[in-house]
UniProtKB/TrEMBL annotation:
Organism of provenance: Marinomonas alcarazii
A GO MF label: hydrolase activity
Any GO BP: cobalamin biosynthetic process
Designated name of the protein: Cobalt-precorrin 5A hydrolase
Keyword hit for Hydrolase: yes
Span of domain CobE/GbiG C-terminal: 129-252
Domain Cobalamin synthesis G N-terminal positions: 42-120
Pfam families: CbiG_C, CbiG_N
Record keywords, A-Z: Hydrolase
Amino acid sequence: MIRFVALTPAGERLARKLLSNVALNNWPDAVVDYKPKPFAEFVQTAFKNGDWLVFICATGIVMRTLAPVLQDKYQDPPVLVLDEEGKFVIPLLSGHEGGANEWGAQVAKSLGAQLVMTTAKPYLNPVYTLGMGCERHCPLEFIESLMLDALAQKGLTPSDIHSLNSIDIKADETNLIALADKYHWDFNTYSAQELTPMESLLSTKSDYIFNTVGVYGVAESAALLAVQMETGTEPELILNKIKNAKATCALARGFCSSSGEFTGRNANHLNG
């Protein structure tokens, strides 16, 4: 459950605007709570119940209210704070592990607002990369259906993706090329030597894949390396490898400055 908590009429209007975006963005069910009473008890109960919380008020109010019920970043639900004009979105709690950073980026995008990342450089925009591996001559439908499933799991669309990436032995894989062409993505491939530095960031390591191609995971490694090379920032997996009978797929994210450091294909999309 998402709760949009507003304390002013302007905040309530913004909350209801966000409520209309819930279904569009594949977020959980949501409600608007305008001036809930008693405020502290209401908010703390929602937090302990694991509700996703969006506060449209001052960050100080939020922190003082939630302080008694905070546990740790692995258990606390994601919390965002917005100004009542909807110009800034701040992932306040559970940024990485709880998903507030990613969710905040989606909220900012839906409002045309600025994402304010306090866990990294401020004023950053997300860049998403797709990594895939597959059997030789894998049919397009296996690759495409898996890709669409991966994006749906994270509330993304093909236009959010910067590039499709794999290992160099797949550079001539007909349907990986066809998939990239269909969605107007760059298709990049990397050698096992180039992918190896991503090993420490992998969610799982497959000895079989290592013995076959020289890296412990193609999809995750390729997605991570691609976003690191594009943004120059520390990459993170936002979707661990998923697979079907013939292909694997993973999603990674990095952040670029809104001041124009990102020069890739989707720069205008990500900044708009």
